[in-house]
Amino acid sequence: MILLVLSLLFGILFCWWDVQKPKGFPPGPKWLPIVGNFPQIFQLKKSLGYHHKIWHHLSREYGNVVGLRLGRDRLIVVSGCEAIRDFYSRAEFDGRPNGFFFTVRSFNQRLGLVFTDGQDWDAQRRFCMKTLKQLGFGRYSMVKRIEREAEEMIEYMWRKNEQDGGIFMHNAFDISVLNVLWTLMAGRRYDLEDERLTQLMRLIHECFRIIDMSGGILNQYPALRHIMPHFSGYKPLMATFRPIWNFLRETIEEISRSKVDANEPKSLIEAYVRQIKASAKDGTTPFTEDQLLAVCLDMFQAGSETTSNTLAFALIYMLHYPHVAQRVKDELMTIVGPTSLPKLEQRALLPYTEAVLCEIQRCANVAPLAIVHRATEAVHFMGFTVPKDTLALVSLYSLHMDPKAWRNPHEFNPERFLDGNNQLVNHEGFLPFGSGRRRCMGENLAKSSLFLFFATFMHVFEAKLPDGETKLPDLEGYDGITLSPKAYRVILSRRQHTARQHSLGLFVILLLCICLLGALLVAKELRRPKNFPPGPQWLPIVGNSPQLRREARKFGGLHRVYGMWMEKYGSSVLGMKLGGTLYAVGSSYDVVREIHMREEFEGRPKNFFMRLRTMGSLRGITCVDGAMWAEHRAFAVKHLRNAGYGRQPMELAIGEELEDLLALIEHQMGAAGPFWPGKILPVSVLNVLWTFTAGKPLGRDDVRIEKLLSLLQERSKAFDMSGGVLSSMPWIRFLAPEWSGYNLIRRFNEELRDLLMETIDAHHESYSEDKSSDDLIYAFIKEMKQQQNTQNPQSTFTNIQLTMVILDIFIAGSQTTSITIDLALMMLLLHPEMQDKIYEEIMQNNDAKNLSSSPHGNFPFTEAYLMEVRRFFNVVPISGPRRTTRDTHLGGYSIPRNTTILINLHSVHMDEEHWGDPYTFRPERFLSGGKICNAERLMPFGQGKRRCLGDTLARACIFTFFTGIVQKFKLAPIADEPPDGKRRCLGDTLARACIFTFFTGIVQKFKLAPIADEPPDVNLLPGITLSPKPYRVLFEKR
């Protein structure tokens, strides 16, 4: 009796203790002993139907952080923009649960990528990301895979539609989506009608519907699998896991048996197998066969389920909103054209299509709950105390349907993702891929796949319900870990892109109207605005483009043509038209200074070339104006200075790079003899700037840098400052993509985007607050996070903007400075007396020991020499382009708003009235009494607010590199060297016979004309920047 009483008392005390909430735990429904809140959850599931709606319902009752208990585990549910943003910023919530459901899928161990944490997760993620990037993940090769898969997909869909009189779309994208990732994982793709893959994808969909993101009752009471295997979900789960395990094992074994290429693995599995073998001796290695199988399972499931479901929901939304579908198709037709398929590079030119996809992801909420997290330690969060090992569910559904963040959140409205300029905007309340360190690692792949598959389908097909069916497919879908669409069938037809047939009479009328409109258009095109600057008469449509290109080729560059036209028309302001855009060219010192200093000339044109230059985004610093330019220029200047720009750290960086450059010159001379210094200077200059931008130099051994610099050189020669033919006639890219330079810029953009994204991704992964002053990228990421925390929907601090800022720095920092140094060295060969004078000035100066920090004023002749190089060669003879932000006047002429302005710096630097002998190279013109003078007319970096923000670095690099080279080496032209051999060649008889016979035979048949040795040429190659023709120089160590 006493034992019974004690047992009863103990039971009562246990129940009382078990229902107590930890101190400071978030509010929520009271829980029961042992089972926690499971009974309430089951009841709410019956009434609401979906797990994410349960959590949303509780958050509306208890707040944005709800505390519950499911079985043994404490759980918090995080909702709302503020709480979710704060949650993702906390490293304490980066853990993953360790329950039965989360380990049974990986052989009762914590394996894989999705449900692990700590060092094992970090090692696996780093290895996988590194290998996938080497295989093309996030790069151009991956894009081409997706584009090819999209082509295969539409052919399969059309074939299936024709065979069966329609097609089921709820699973039509499954294997296409999987193939994109599986080519990286296993180095192969599968036929879209493969029966085994179709069955496996069906099992994956079922697996995701069996249980919810919390792990369900099976996770809390795994013993139930022995008592109620069906009710607990254990038996259905194992029925789906076993076939997938078998398939993955077979794939791994097949790749393991094949010959593994130690240098170039063709897939992630092959690279992983190699890693397993390499670390087999280490018993604690995280790389095992079970781990590989778990990683493959994570990729197999995560890489197919959400993306394919989103695409299936996308078509349902298009059936529900045909006006939206039509606008998407119209945009695709305008940009892509009737005979092509969409390309990923066109994504920035298709903002409405992108906005529709964003709105579909927001409304469909395929992943309404993020993957469950775990608190790795006790943490104070949103005013509550969350104990260690508490599980956490993030309700992305609440975020995407939050009326505080979205106006009419339940309304399907793609325009909410577009700004007033019809450009895509980032919304802080939109996080379909999560955020923070546990953000979906396949986000870029998923976004690219979503865009290309959706855009290709919409561009090729019209979809309608089968005859007799009036009920549209359900927008709700099935509940589960993810939401999946219910089965639905459509009939496809290929879109007709040809015009309808019209009657002959209508055709004649239309033709007459076109002729009349054409005549009116020609008259309008030929009309010159009132009081517009003088210039040549332009043609309809093309304007002055043909004449300008023809004369530029004939006379050696636009600056020469503008100089001749300035004399011909007797005006320092020229007016012309390129394509459909008015241009004004300002020449002479007074006009150029006026353009530099007046506010209405600070705009940038928004033409096709500018869009192409910025990868379709019109972002960055160089190519934008207004508030965005002011904000980001000020930000860049501030944080570059914080990192040491213009101060001692910059001097040290230049000094270190100079040491490397001098060592490289010495090595080159020993290995290859005389060489052209212009091949090695760009990387040296770029390394200095990259140190402040990305925290470290790029490295000379990276073949991508050499390729990028080569493409940049081609780009510079293919275009001029007006943007070339692409700017005035962008349609020409469809007719002559290679000749117009369109393909060249695409190749350059693709190569550079790969390099930049790799750098940015690495910074995101390693970011911490204490690194924010290390370099510009870390500072930008910090600002991005601060803007997100302040919930600023108009923030311009985005990954796209960061990419464009770095692009501006790369382009600006890799050509003009290195070309100037190259020209300064070249002129030493033509003026050896100046080389001696500069060397003597360097060696007589006490500051010569540390040139990077020496005041330039202590080297007056050297500084005057470098100024004369900049004046004489005019590396950027035409600067700009600018855009007038309002109607204005210049030089007594009327300049309409949105006229493109080009600044003829060549006319200032070669003005005979001021310089007297401008075509004579004479550094002394900048000296008076041993001091620098006459510098106000030298403006290679521009003036005013839009002055080059890198002029300080450029001047320092030019001075330090040039003087450092002259201090250590004497530059000499190449002379013929007599042989000094003393040992007679034993093959002299054969050599004499060959020489005599070959020589007399050639002389008998050909007349040979001599070619004199040519010195370095001061006539530069034209382009956006002028550059010297390659020459070789002998560096003699002093």
Describe the structure.
One of its GO terms (biological process) is organic acid metabolic process. Pfam families: p450 (PF00067). Belongs to the cytochrome P450 family. GO terms for molecular function: heme binding; iron ion binding; oxidoreductase activity, acting on paired donors, with incorporation or reduction of molecular oxygen, reduced flavin or flavoprotein as one donor, and incorporation of one atom of oxygen; steroid hydroxylase activity. This protein has 1038 residues and is α+β, with helices and mostly antiparallel strands. The protein folds into two domains: 393 residues, Cytochrome P450 (Cytochrome p450, Orthogonal Bundle); 387 residues, Cytochrome P450 (Cytochrome p450, Orthogonal Bundle), CATH 1.10.630.10. 51% of the residues lie in helices and 7% in strands. It contains 40 helices and 19 strands. The strands form seven sheets. It has a four-stranded mixed sheet with strand order 1-2-7-4. The longest helix has 25 residues. The N and C termini lie far apart (107 Å). About 2% of the residues have low confidence.
Labels describing this entry:
1038 residues; alpha+beta; Cytochrome p450; 2 domains; four-stranded mixed beta sheet; 40 helices; 19 strands
Quick summary:
This protein has 1038 residues and is an alpha+beta fold. It is built from 40 helices and 19 strands.
**CATH class membership of the largest domain:** Mainly Alpha
What is the total tally of β strands?
19
Count of spatially separate domains:
2
Rounded to an integer, what's the Rg over CA atoms?
Answer: 34 Å
CATH architecture designation of the largest domain: Orthogonal Bundle
